[in-house]
Amino acid sequence: MIYRSLLRPLLFRLPAETAHELALHSLPFLRTIERVFPGKSSISPAGTLRRFGLEFRNPIGLAAGFDKNGIAVDHLAAFGFSFIEVGTVTNEPQPGNPKPRIFRMPRDRALINRLGFNNRGAAQVAENLKRRPLDCVIGVNIGKSRSVSVENAIPDYLASLEAIHKVADYVAINVSSPNTPQLRELQRPELLEDLLRALQQRNADLAGDCSPQPLLLKIAPDLTEKEIESIVEVAMRLDIAGVIATNTTVNREGLKTSRADVVKCGQGGLSCEPLQQRSNEVITLIHRLTRGKLPIIGVGGVFTAEDAWEKICAGASLVQLYTGFIYEGPGVAFRINEGLTKIVKREGFQSLDEAVGSGVK
């Protein structure tokens, strides 16, 4: 494949964030390369899927973090993703943490990032998304502005919701990034309930006579079983549309990269292959706790169709990837959907819905 044999080695010679920006702005060129494989855009392992009131042409989406400002959703949609999650977006424009703030760990096929919600602000992102593609579901991931205290987080989230609600098909509530100080405190049940209740109320007000947008909650992998139970209870009680499991982890156990090299990277969220097992455990727990009634978007460690299949069997009704896109290139969603088509047939399922949670006892 051209990307893995030629482009990735060149990109990996650059600082990680420089390579990211170059790739983001080179998507039209990469899109031209992928056109040598005709017919891929129509590949789906199960036809159209219906999740929290929306239709998805396949189960594979791009997680938040790649296109923070919604400037490239049309090109990204052409790479076989059925949904793109933009962000994380904050009410206030902010530069994020000091550079360098993205680090590759090739031996683990992983990244550490401490970007800190760098984005141009919800109002500008909403303006960018007015030019969004119509054949791809667009989610917008919103978080707390860095300058705002946890105590004042609710008005800040509400302002972001108001700015982007007309251009988003669903809204992801990010209370789980490790890179904004104190953000994860919002996962505490009493704070989370107040936040989600306020967002649901404003969401209903903004909808008027139409159906409110689906609000999804993105949670951390670094939670105890009891903490996850409490979060799920709040989400179910407030009729949250789904859960995204999971964000990046602060855990550094079991890595192939030397401890010295890991320490050099410093603090930040670790993503991809080392997160795979923990993400699947959290998905399984949520599916079991809710008896499959709460839709789950599974994310963490997805490179192949088999990786995606594990998450589906654990209880995920949709799957996202981000670091897999960096390591595997623009054809990764096509390859995963091709592989899932074969796996669904191999395992004897008539539909992907039948497979969701099939591995949970």
CATH superfamily: Aldolase class I
The arrangement of helices and strands along the chain is HHHEEEHEEEHEHEHEHEHEHEHEHHH
Instruction: State the name of the first-level CATH class.
Output: Alpha Beta
What gyration radius follows from the Cα positions, in whole Å? 19 Å
User: Strand sequence of the main sheet, in spatial order?
Assistant: 3-4-7-8-9-10-12-13
Indicate the percent of residues in helices: 25-40%
Number of strands: 13
Summed up, the domain count is: 1
Specify the biggest β-sheet.
8 strands, parallel, barrel
What does this structure look like?
It is a single chain. 39% of the residues lie in helices and 16% in strands. By secondary structure, the protein is an alpha/beta fold. The protein has a single domain (2-355), classed as Aldolase class I (TIM Barrel, Alpha-Beta Barrel), CATH 3.20.20. The chain has an eight-stranded parallel barrel with strand order 3-4-7-8-9-10-12-13, surrounded by five helices. Strands 5-6-11 form a three-stranded antiparallel sheet, with no helix packed on it. Strands 1-2 form a two-stranded antiparallel sheet. It starts with a helix and ends in a 6-residue tail after the last helix. The relative contact order is 0.15.
Offer a quick outline of the entry.
The protein has 361 residues and is α/β, with parallel strands linked by helices. Helices cover 39% and strands 16% of the residues.
Keywords:
16% strand, 361 residues, TIM Barrel, alpha/beta, 14 helices
Which helices and strands occur, and which strands form pairs?
Elements: H1 2-11, H2 16-25, H3 27-34, E1 49-51, E2 54-56, E3 60-62, H4 73-77, E4 83-89, E5 102-105, E6 110-113, H5 122-128, E7 137-142, H6 153-164, E8 170-174, H7 189-207, E9 215-219, H8 225-237, E10 242-245, H9 259-265, E11 269-272, H10 276-290, E12 296-299, H11 305-314, E13 318-321, H12 323-328, H13 332-346, H14 352-355
